[in-house]
Amino acid sequence: MWGVTATAPDAAPADQERKAPGRPRSPRADEAIIEAVLDLLADGTPAESISIESVAARAGVGKATIYRRWSNKEALLVDAVSSVKGEPPKIKGESVRDDLVTLLRPFAVPPRTRAAKIMPCLYSEIQRSPELNRGVQKIVEPRRELMRQVLRRGMDAGELRADLDVDLVMAMLTGPLIAQSVVGWNPKLDRTTLPERLVDTLWPAIAAS
Predict the structure, then answer these.
(1) CB-side exposure of 207: number of CA atoms within 13 Å?
(2) With 0-12 CB in 10 A as exposed, 13-18 as middle and 19+ as buried, what is 9?
(3) Does residue 14 form part of some domain?
(4) 8 Å CB contact between 154 and 95
(5) What is the domain range of residue 51?
(6) What is d(CA 99, CA 146) in angstroms, rounded to the nearest whole number?
(7) pLDDT digits (tens, 9 = 90+) for 64-115
(8) Residues in CB range of 168: below 8 A, 6 or more apart
(9) CA-based radius of gyration for the chain
(10) Which of 145, 182, 200, 206 has the most crowded Cβ, counting Cβ within 10 A?
(11) Is residue 50 domain-shared with residue 136, that is, in the same domain?
């Protein structure tokens, strides 16, 4: 009568009309997808050649299952990198020299291990993709900050030079290890002893006189 549409007595309440929540995410599917990415990288597939289709086929899931969890390939790769990196090493906080060696050890994985095969396949894509680069930087930065703290602790204690360029020293320590990991720059260098050798070689230049 007044231009208002009457509601039928048996109309379903609004909350009943909402879609029921979807099934909860399966941790098993998450793990299978991450493992599929890592398997492809460990097999030598460059990150830029990996597609959502290839990951889905390797994991035995549909593409929709992946897209429900990750918005794009870059986000998936970031989580894969995070799973390889794990937690930062635990340091004792007693010796600057020993703590530096501890922080460098993850770079010195033997060449035939899975992690050693995976990381070189990621580097070109990390440089190409700003999104992947930002994601990886977030993973790496806590490790860099931990090394900064060790070096600054040594400076405050008078064990290291007060005028030390902390970030430059970090680059000098990690650069050779990354070069060995990515391109095998010098096959004669033993990766397993390289962290100690790098710290001990650089020590006279950074130690307080």
Answers:
(1) 10
(2) exposed
(3) no
(4) no
(5) 27-77
(6) 10
(7) 999 999 999 999 999 998 888 878 889 999 999 999 999 999 887 766 778 7
(8) none
(9) 25
(10) 206
(11) no
